[in-house]
Specification:
Blueprint lengths: L4 H11 L23 E5 L2 E4 L4 E4 L14 H11 L10 H13 L5 E5 L2 H16 L3 E5 L16 H5 L10 H5 L1 E4 L4 H11 L3 E6 L15 H12 L2 E5 L11 H5 L6 E4 L10 E5 L1 H4 L18 H16 L3 H22 L4 E6 L2 E6 L7 H5 L3 H13 L2 E2 L8 E2 L6 H12 L4
Parallel strand pairs: 3-13, 5-6, 5-7, 7-8, 8-9
Antiparallel strand pairs: 1-2, 2-3, 4-10, 9-10, 11-12, 12-14
Helix pairs in contact: 2-11, 3-11, 7-8, 12-15
Bound molecules: pyridoxal-5'-phosphate.
């Protein structure tokens, strides 16, 4: 048995000072049970905890570490930049370079504004959509997470699903009323809602691949159907690419599914591990943001030089590495095929969903295509699977409602080690 004594002691200590001992709920391991690992450092595909245990990492900081941890060019760029001061609160050339690079990778973004988190990006995109259209309601999908702004905390997947929180005290009912939720992959329901509320709807916001109820791919034609509906009704189509941006392809889900959003939000990878988000899109909409327009949005540390150089260095490498996304997809496929073969042989009912370097394993279920079918899965079995692998040095997301993320630092040998650990699992 691995020893977790130091992590256990740190968790005890943390709980005296930090709510639940963590600064973001899913880290607490509440649904899988046990106590969280306290991480000391990470390099490439591996995490090392405070007890000196090594883990193959399938979280990768929930996405940003797509090239592995402590990626040398990113670390060096941060170190060099920090010597010139860590913040100015004034414009820098680097912010222009960042915007130019993003526009090169995502051609339908005309203007882009940097913020400090995915939450801020989505919150600001919704405010802008409302300001631009003069309408109040938004449509979101059950199980999709768009950060913790009030308007999004309705059937929001992710940590709320993990903790089984149905409605959030503190979110006023009049705010929640303007958020209409519809099952993922159900175009007919969306059409019905649009027929009913038509000109009251400012925006449809969606994760183009669901990543906060496990990994859920869009059904063929679903995103295209939403796009058409938005165009017909003057609704702003917002793709939340906080996870999928720069992960599925250079241009994200927009490129993969050949679909153009009106606004798009980013986070996670865009900061290279620093706290960054961004929202951007069509010029005529983005021009309504202050100081050009009167939709106010601001940030003391937005466009921070350390955050920008980390993100820029990572994105630049993603943009310049040929075959990167093919390699990630192949590693992901190898893992999924191995998992599927072993679980099938053991007679463990499961569904594996995979899109590029995102994947998830749901136990005991048929097809998982929306929040309901994700919730129907065997959570208890997932929890045992999670702890079985953790004991063997494989670190999965501590919830069946989270997607796994593959980094390019993960080697074929790491995948074989992971599968060998799965081989020892007894349901
Ligand atoms: C993580 C996430 C967010 C929120 O980003 P934060 O940086 O945690 O605020 C928004 N949307 C999606 C799809 C996410 O996965």
């Amino acid at each position: 048995m691995r020893s977790y004594k130091t992590s256990q002691a740190l968790f005890e200590r943390a709980q005296h000072h930090i709510p639940g001992g963590v600064n973001s709920p899913v880290r607490a391991f509440k649904s899988v049970g046990g106590h969280p690992l306290f991480i000391k450092r990470a390099k490439g595909a591996y995490l090392y905890d405070e007890d000196g245990n090594r883990y193959i990492d399938y979280i990768n900081s929930w996405g940003p570490m797509i090239l592995g941890h402590a990626h040398p060019p990113v670390v060096q760029a941060i170190q060099a930049k920090a010597a010139d001061s860590t913040s100015f609160g004034a414009p820098t050339e680097l912010e222009i370079e960042m915007a130019e690079l993003i526009k090169k990778m995502v051609p339908n973004v005309d203007l882009i504004r940097m913020v400090n988190s995915g939450t801020e990006a989505c919150m600001s995109a919704i405010r802008l959509a409302r300001g631009f259209t003069g309408r109040n309601k938004i449509i979101k999908f059950e199980g999709c997470y768009h950060g913790h702004a009030d308007a999004f905390l309705v059937k929001a997947g992710s940590g709320l699903a993990t903790l089984d929180i149905q409605s959030v005290p503190g979110v006023q009912s009049y705010v929640a009323q303007d958020t209409i939720t519809v099952p993922y992959n159900n175009l007919e329901e969306v059409q019905k809602v649009v027929r009913q509320y038509g000109k009251e709807i400012a925006a449809i916001i969606i994760e183009p691949v669901g990543g906060n109820m496990g990994c859920i791919p869009p059904a063929p034609g679903f995103l295209q159907g939403l796009r058409e509906l938005c165009t017909q009704q003057g609704i702003i189509f917002i793709l939340d690419e906080v996870i999928t941006g720069f992960r599925l392809t250079r241009g994200g889900a927009q490129e993969l599914y050949r679909i153009e959003a009106d606004l798009v939000t980013y986070g996670k990878i865009i900061g290279g591990g620093m706290p960054v988000g961004a929202f951007g899109g069509k010029k005529e909409i983005m021009e309504r943001i202050a100081p050009l327009g009167n939709v106010y949005q601001a940030g003391t540390l937005s466009g921070n030089p350390i955050a920008m150089i980390a993100g820029y260095t990572l994105l630049n490498e993603l943009n310049n590495t040929p075959d990167l996304y093919t390699a990630l997809n192949e590693k992901s496929k190898l893992l999924c095929e191995g998992l599927s073969e072993i679980l099938k042989r053991k007679g463990i009912a499961h569904t594996i969903n995979q899109v590029g370097s995102m994947l998830s394993v749901h136990f005991g279920a048929g097809v998982v295509r929306d929040f309901e079918s994700a919730k129907a899965c065997d959570g208890e079995l997932f929890n045992r699977f999670f702890h079985h692998l953790l004991q063997r040095g494989v670190y999965l997301p501590p919830s069946a409602f989270e997607s796994w993320f593959i980094s390019n630092a993960l080697s074929v040998d790491d995948i074989h080690q992971t599968l060998a650990a799965v081989e020892e699992f007894e349901a």
